[in-house]
């Protein structure tokens, strides 16, 4: 079990929005003490990114649903490091910390002595993580940037969306901030690696994680396809660029995903839908030929699948060992028997907002870890007095 793997590790979290807080929430879920430093009055920008909002039982306080996704298990402390007295308190806290996470624009923290070179003088063992849009060096290093920007600049949107010539064609973003979230996961891995290295060497580390770097890396097979062929991947809607049929089809009662992984599976599919001649047709007999003639194949299969329900086709596909899955709305997701069995939905009590529903961290997958008690999102400055008292004893 890894639920308490980071017990004794203190993280000073100077990050805001999503990529940094996603990383620090991972660390908190693994047992680290994460102290989130926020501005008095407003706090992390995402506290107000709504609607929807959670509203306190007396209607006096509210916080965005967005904020709840990445800030559980943390302590909130209001310290304005532009104030000299507060800055000195923050530096004392950092001196006692194992990890600092920040996502300010390049150079911003140096004027306050909160950059890595300054911090390592008072804490040589510190693991210092900087998350920025473009990294700490290069011609664009001083630019700000959000996830959406990097979905475009990193290439993802160039091959995501309806194919040219189809209604609604054009670049399309993912429905969630995938670059921020992937950056948070890369950052988590980097921090854990740096802590392991420190255990071996006694030395801290500086980690420079850039959203643009992550956006380029997460192109994965699409990048490899380009680097091998020299051809830019095209938008193919819901179709896979390397496999067919591997896309969304409509049944009588909704959409489902069909994922045929090889020629043998395609043969079984054709027999299942009572079109046994289809798999010997030269247009469709190999994966390469099916990709070449995908529009024709799609039309044939689309007509067939409209004849019955998703459950019917799912049962048949399951019998043939062919992967499939419903396209679920979120209300269906949280009712799914496997999601329920895996305890992915967690409910905790907040003293102001009552019961809050949260999503379990997938890393905590052991049955005994799935229902590990979580601390709810902190109210702004909730732990300021506690932490300041602790700092005074350092």
Work out the strand percent. 15-25%
- Total individual domains: 2
Give me the oligomer status: single chain
Largest sheet: 6 strands, parallel
The mean pLDDT is: 96
Number of strands: 13
CATH class of the largest domain: Alpha Beta
Using the CA coordinates, give the radius of gyration.
25 Å
Low-confidence regions = none
Distance between the termini: 32 Å
Which fold name is given in CATH as the topology of the largest domain? Rossmann fold
Q: Any idea what the CATH superfamily of the largest domain is called?
A: Crotonobetainyl-coa:carnitine coa-transferase, domain 1
**Main sheet: which strands, in order across?**
5-2-1-6-7-8
The percentage helix is 25-40%
In N-to-C order, the SSE pattern is EHEEEHEHEHEHHEHHEEHHHHEHHEEHH
CATH architecture of the largest domain: 3-Layer(aba) Sandwich
Structural class: alpha/beta
SS element count, helices: 16
The outline comes out as elongated
Plain-language structure description:
With 394 residues, the chain is of the alpha/beta class. It folds into two domains: 10-217 and 342-392, Crotonobetainyl-coa:carnitine coa-transferase, domain 1 (Rossmann fold), CATH 3.40.50.10540; 246-328, formyl-coa transferase, domain 3, CATH 3.30.1540.10. Helices cover 36% and strands 17% of the residues. It has 16 helices and 13 strands. The protein has helices spanning 19-29, 65-68, 84-95, 116-122, 147-153, 178-201, 211-217, 221-229, 263-272, 287-292, 294-305, 310-319, 330-333, 337-341, 367-370, 384-392, and strands spanning 10-14, 33-38, 53-55, 62-64, 74-78, 99-102, 127-132, 205-210, 246-251, 254-259, 323-326, 345-350, 354-359. Strands 5-2-1-6-7-8 form a six-stranded parallel sheet, with helices on both faces. A hairpin with a 3-residue loop joins strand 12 and strand 13. Helix 1 (19-29) crosses helix 6 and helix 6 crosses helix 7 (211-217). The longest helix has 24 residues, at 178-201. The mean pLDDT is 96.
């Amino acid at each position: 079990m890894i639920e308490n793997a980071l017990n004794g590790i203190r993280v000073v979290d100077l990050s805001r929005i999503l990529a940094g807080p996603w990383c620090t929430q991972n660390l908190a879920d693994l047992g680290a003490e994460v102290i989130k430093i926020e501005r008095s009055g407003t706090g992390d920008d995402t506290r107000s990114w709504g609607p929807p909002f959670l509203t306190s039982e007396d209607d006096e306080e509210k916080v965005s649903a967005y904020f709840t996704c990445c800030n559980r298990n943390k302590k909130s402390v209001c310290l304005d490091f532009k104030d000299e007295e507060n800055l000195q308190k923050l530096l004392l806290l950092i001196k006692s910390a194992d990890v600092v996470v920040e996502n300010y624009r390049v150079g911003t923290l140096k004027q306050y002595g909160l950059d890595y070179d300054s911090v390592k003088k008072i804490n040589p063992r510190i693991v210092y993580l900087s998350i920025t849009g473009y990294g700490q060096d290069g011609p664009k290093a001083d630019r700000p940037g959000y996830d959406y920007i990097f979905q475009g600049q990193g290439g993802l949107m160039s091959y995501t969306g309806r194919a040219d010539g189809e209604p609604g064609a054009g670049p399309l973003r993912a429905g969630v901030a995938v670059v921020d979230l992937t950056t948070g996961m890369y950052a988590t891995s980097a921090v854990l690696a740096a802590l392991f290295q420190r255990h071996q060497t006694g030395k801290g580390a500086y980690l420079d994680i850039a959203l643009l770097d992550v956006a380029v890396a997460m192109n994965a097979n699409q990048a490899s396809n380009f680097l091998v062929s020299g051809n830019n991947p095209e938008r193919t809607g819901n179709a896979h660029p390397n496999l067919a049929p591997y896309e969304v089809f409509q049944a009588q009662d909704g959409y489902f995903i069909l994922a045929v992984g090889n020629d043998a599976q395609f043969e079984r599919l054709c027999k299942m839908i009572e079109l046994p001649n289809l798999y010997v047709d030269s247009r469709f007999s190999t994966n390469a030929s099916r990709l070449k003639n995908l529009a024709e194949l799609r039309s044939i299969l689309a007509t067939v699948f409209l004849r019955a329900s998703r459950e019917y086709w799912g049962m048949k596909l399951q019998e043939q060992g062919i992967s499939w899955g419903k396209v679920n709305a979120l209300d269906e997701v949280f009712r799914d028997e496997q999601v329920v069995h895996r305890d992915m939905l967690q409910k905790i009590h907040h003293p102001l907002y009552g019961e809050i529903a949260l999503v379990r961290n997938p890393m905590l997958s052991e049955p005994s870890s799935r229902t590990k008690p979580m601390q709810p999102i902190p109210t702004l400055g909730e732990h300021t007095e506690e932490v300041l008292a602790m700092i005074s004893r350092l």
